[in-house]
Specification:
The chain is mostly helical. It contains two helices and no strands.
Length: 77
């Protein structure tokens, strides 16, 4: 017996009011599954690029000594 057949056999035993509730629940699950399927590509939210997420990070105009070597790296040059 397949899973679908077993589910239908159990549903046939239920009163009509409960069958309506089962129908609504299965409809909810089907809709939820349909919405989640496209989101599988976005499983890792860290990889998402949000437009404007770096706003305010860079200050313009750049300071005059922007291209000068940093003192912290003097030993390596």
């Amino acid at each position: 017996m397949t899973l679908e057949a077993a589910i239908l056999k159990n549903i046939e035993k239920l009163p009509d009011s409960v069958k309506q509730a089962v129908f609504l629940y299965t409809e909810f699950l089907a809709n939820q599954y349909a919405e989640e399927k496209p989101k599988e590509a976005e499983k890792n939210p860290e990889n998402r690029q949000l437009a404007g997420s770096m706003k305010g990070t860079f200050v313009l105009p750049l300071p005059d000594d922007f291209d000068e070597p940093l003192e912290d790296f003097k030993d390596y040059m």
